[in-house]
Each structure stands twice: as C-alpha cells, then as structure tokens.
C-alpha cells in the first residue's frame, strides 16, 4: 500500500501581521491553549502513520532548536526530538520562500511522497481523504482547496478535478473562469510527489506557486481536492484572529479528532498549572493564562489571553487584550 514518506511543516515565516505577538517567538510556536501551533499538524501527521517529520526554520530559528531539544546540528540541518521521535529542522540562512524551502529539504523530500502543511493554520482537515484522493488520481501534486476564505487564488475544474491555474504576482486568474471551472482557495496543504522538486528552480528564493504553474503549463496532472463536509479551520495571521480562534474553540467545544501529544495538558486548559492567579483576582468570561503568567491581587481580567511570563499588577483592569512579557495588545479599539 502506498504511504506518505514524510510531512514537511512550513515554519520559516516571520509572522509580521501577528506583531507584537511574534516579536520574540516564531508564529508556528505561538501557543493555542498552551500548545504550540505547529504541533497540531505534527500530531495529525503522526496519527496518519507518517514517520518522518520535518520543518524549515529561519526567523528566530533558535526557538525551534530549544523547543525540539536539538542535540545534533550542522549549518543546514538539525535533528531534534518530539515525543520520543526525531524531527528534522532544515535551516534557511536567507529567505527562500515556499519552493526554495522544499528545495532546501530535498535530501529528505526526494525519498518519497510527502505532505506539506503551512505552520500557521489550525485545522482538522481530512488529510486521510486528501491522501487517498492523491494516490487514486495519480497526480504529481494534489492541493487541498476550500470555498471559504477571502483568497480565491486557484482556478479549479470541477468536472475533472484538475487545477488549471494559480494566482501569483506574475500570473493573475481571470475574473470569471468559464464553467465548469471555479475560483477557489488553496489552503497551504498538499500531497506532492518527489519528482515535483524538479520543477523548482535550483537557486534563489522561489514560491511553490511558480513551480506548480510550470507543471500545469507542461500538462502535468495537478489536482485539487475539496472535502464534502465541513471541518475546523483557522488562519492565525493577526492578533484578532488569534484571539477569535481561542474564543471559537471554547464556544464550539472543538476538540481535534486526532491524538494530541502525551506531554500536552488536557484540551483545552485555560489556566496553565504554572500560572499564578491571586484568590482576589476577578476573571470574567474567557481568560487564558500561560506558564509563569501572573494575575495579581484584585486585578480584573475579562476576555484576555496572557502568554507565558505576562504580568498583570494588583488592582489593574484589562479587557479584550493579549498580554505578553513585554507588551499589551488591546483589541477593543
């Protein structure tokens, strides 16, 4: 039976739209109820039996080496550990973009069919269905597509399941694709055959979109997969979306359908066991407090997220705010 050889988590971005939350921590390691964002994709991949897990790093790459307890490294590759299993960290000394990131990890990705997964999304998308569809279709690459969301950057033929074009800086879609084609969004999740790496330029930063465009132009089979049922999806690109995702998880009582890592807290845990909350503090509605966060005496906190080491002094009031060790990001205005 055909299997996915490896999963590659795209984690090298700077997360500029999430500032100040990402000033000292890379976005893929930003926590959602105390669990680093990218580890959801890792857990999902491991549940599917994918043994080889990797990611690319650049911005604040030392944070990845610390979290994954790297013991062995070269200038390009570090080997860390996650739940007793090795994880490969491919470092990028300069900006390589998504296609360049795949090229930089070619030593691993060339060994078999692989999954790519953006490291800044939280989802329980049906990856097993995507994988089955890819192998059944015999495609060079199969992109997970979805109707929801503002970006309609793919022209997709509903009749044959093929992608006819992708939008980028150099190639815009027609405003109204002719039937049976539609405009739809690419999720940043795909199943790819190793021979696709041949379509990526050998040097410099380059997007995966350009390589896909070249393959489509050469009549290679690039497929799209649209799930027939709803699934949880959140792009944590801004402080507002980061906050809303926490609230949505509580309101919808969302629990990932795949097994979470054993070292994680019960899901979801609002107040981390290492957080300190004074008995006289007043917590209202949604309050999330990370490890070593402090909510001091007689403080009033309503609808706030405190990241690790955040501190609310005595008698202070905060509402609709994300707090870090050195910043307060108010969302009410």
Key phrases:
alpha/beta; 11-stranded mixed beta sheet
Concise summary:
By secondary structure, this protein is an alpha/beta fold.
Find the structural class using helix and strand composition: alpha/beta
Over the alpha carbons, how many angstroms does the gyration radius reach? 21 Å
Tell me the span between the first and last alpha carbons: 54 Å
> What is the tally of beta strands?
22
The largest sheet is: 11 strands, mixed
Query: Spans of 5+ residues with little confidence (pLDDT < 50)?
Result: 169-176
Strand proportion, as a percent range, falls in 25-35%
Summarize the amount of helix as a percent range. Answer: 10-25%
What do you see in this structure?
With 333 residues, the chain is of the alpha/beta class. It has helices spanning 37-47, 61-67, 97-104, 106-109, 127-137, 208-217, 239-252; strands at residues 6-10, 31-32, 35-36, 52-57, 72-73, 77-82, 85-91, 114-118, 121-123, 141-146, 154-157, 163-166, 181-192, 222-226, 233-235, 276-277, 282-289, 294-295, 300-306, 311-312, 317-323, 328-330. Strands 1, 4, 5, 6, 7, 8, 10, 11, 12, 13 and 14 form an eleven-stranded mixed β-sheet that branches. Strand 5 and strand 6 form a beta hairpin. Helix 3 crosses helix 6. The chain is globular, with a radius of gyration of 21 Å. Mean pLDDT is 90; it is low at 169-176.
Helix and strand arrangement:
Blueprint: E1 6-10, E2 31-32, E3 35-36, H1 37-47, E4 52-57, H2 61-67, E5 72-73, E6 77-82, E7 85-91, H3 97-104, H4 106-109, E8 114-118, E9 121-123, H5 127-137, E10 141-146, E11 154-157, E12 163-166, E13 181-192, H6 208-217, E14 222-226, E15 233-235, H7 239-252, E16 276-277, E17 282-289, E18 294-295, E19 300-306, E20 311-312, E21 317-323, E22 328-330
Parallel strand pairs: 1-4, 1-8, 4-7, 10-14, 16-18, 17-19, 18-20, 19-21
Antiparallel strand pairs: 2-3, 5-6, 6-7, 8-13, 9-15, 10-13, 11-12, 11-13, 21-22
């Amino acid at each position: 039976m055909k299997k996915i050889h490896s999963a590659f988590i795209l984690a090298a971005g700077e997360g500029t739209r999430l500032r100040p939350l990402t000033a000292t921590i890379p976005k893929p390691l930003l926590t959602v109820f105390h669990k680093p964002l990218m580890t959801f994709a890792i857990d999902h991949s491991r549940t599917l039996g994918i043994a080889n897990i990797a990611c690319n790093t650049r911005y604040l790459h030392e944070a990845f080496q610390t979290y994954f307890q790297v013991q062995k490294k070269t200038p390009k590759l570090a080997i860390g550990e996650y739940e007793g299993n090795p994880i490969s960290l491919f470092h990028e000394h300069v900006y390589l973009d998504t296609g360049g990131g795949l090229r930089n990890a070619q030593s691993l990705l060339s060994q078999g069919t692989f999954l790519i997964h953006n490291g800044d999304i939280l989802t329980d998308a049906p990856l097993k269905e995507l994988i089955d569809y890819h192998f059944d279709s015999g495609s060079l690459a199969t992109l997970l597509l979805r109707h929801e969301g503002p970006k309609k950057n793919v022209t997709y033929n509903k009749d044959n399941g093929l992608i006819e074009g992708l939008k980028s800086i150099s190639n815009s879609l027609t405003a109204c694709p002719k039937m049976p084609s539609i405009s739809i969004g690419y999720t940043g999740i795909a199943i790819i055959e190793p021979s696709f790496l041949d379509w990526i330029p050998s040097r410099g930063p380059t997007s995966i979109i350009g390589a896909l465009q070249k393959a489509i132009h050469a009549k290679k089979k690039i497929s799209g997969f649209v799930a027939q049922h709803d699934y949880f999806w959140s792009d944590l690109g801004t402080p507002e979306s980061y906050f809303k995702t926490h609230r949505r998880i509580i309101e919808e009582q969302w629990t990932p359908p795949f097994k979470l890592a054993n070292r994680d807290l019960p899901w979801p845990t609002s107040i981390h066991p290492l957080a300190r909350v004074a008995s006289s503090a007043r917590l209202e509605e949604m309050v999330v407090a990370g490890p070593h966060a402090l909510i001091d005496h007689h403080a009033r906190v309503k609808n706030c997220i405190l990241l690790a080491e955040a501190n609310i002094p005595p008698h202070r009031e905060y509402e609709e705010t994300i707090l870090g060790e050195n910043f307060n990001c108010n969302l009410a205005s």
